[in-house]
## 1
Amino acid sequence: MTDSNCTMTIDHALLKALRYTDQIEPATNVILCLAQEEQSLYRLRQRLLSTSNALSPAQAYLTLYDCLFRHVSTALLNQGYQITSQQPHQTLRRIVRQSAPDTRVQQMIAQRHALKKATSTLMCKDAVETLTRLLNEYDIRDAQACQTLCLLPLQRIVVSSAKSSSV
């Protein structure tokens, strides 16, 4: 486990490749952009903690995926780059593949797209576990939120489904 807040370093060769494909660009006004990312993370975490409007596991997954995006953006900014609008989810995928197998990262992104587009139920345990693992690379608090708000409810659904099908 990492400290509560950690900045990951992105490999120089990967930065060069992302720059070549226009998926990242040199950051302008790094200090302002870092402050905006921190503010976004703060708002996302407030949404997770809100007791007046509790999130479903699917909504929590989407919020925590956004947190991961903010962490990756912050890591890029700390190295002088920012994500462009050129395939941002593929950019995220290429960066986080340093910490998780590509097939798991693809599942995680596919789960996000399914939740955004059509499916309203979080169903892929592997996607949640991958998101938890990646969040842990950046901030243990976000990883713990993912376990509590997404993984535990998903495990309860699987257990209750198994019980009802055996009856």
Note: The chain has one domain: 12-161.
## 2
Amino acid sequence: MPDTDRLTRPAARLVRCLLFSLLFVLHGCAAQTPPRAAASAPAAPEVLIEVYTQSIGRGVPTAAREALLQVRREMLAQGLAPTETRWGIEGEQRLCVVVDAADQAALLAQIEQAIEGIDYIRVAHRALEPGESAATACKPGRAVPAP
């Protein structure tokens, strides 16, 4: 009669070794998988705000240049970093900044107040497209929308 104890011991060891290896691998995979509850919240939508000065055939009027400087100072005072770009041949300039949608209304109200009654300066705003970054939206050379 064969010694069954001698035959089953190596098999039992092999099974135990495989089980421990499997548990070890599964534990490592579980530790690397982030919990579903801790998933990051979706990012707040961002809005691109642009302020343009325009020329009248003899350069940008002084009032429009001064209003643009005031808008720039207000943006800097709020901790924003506007991108300033010259876009025309007569000194036309563009200020561009990306803000959270929650901050959009307050900033637009300040801009509108600063440029109220001044000709040859205008404001444009739009939501950033999916995958569009602030650097891409505000890059120099980007087309200026028609009035």
Note: Residues 67 and 114 are 6 Å apart (CA to CA).
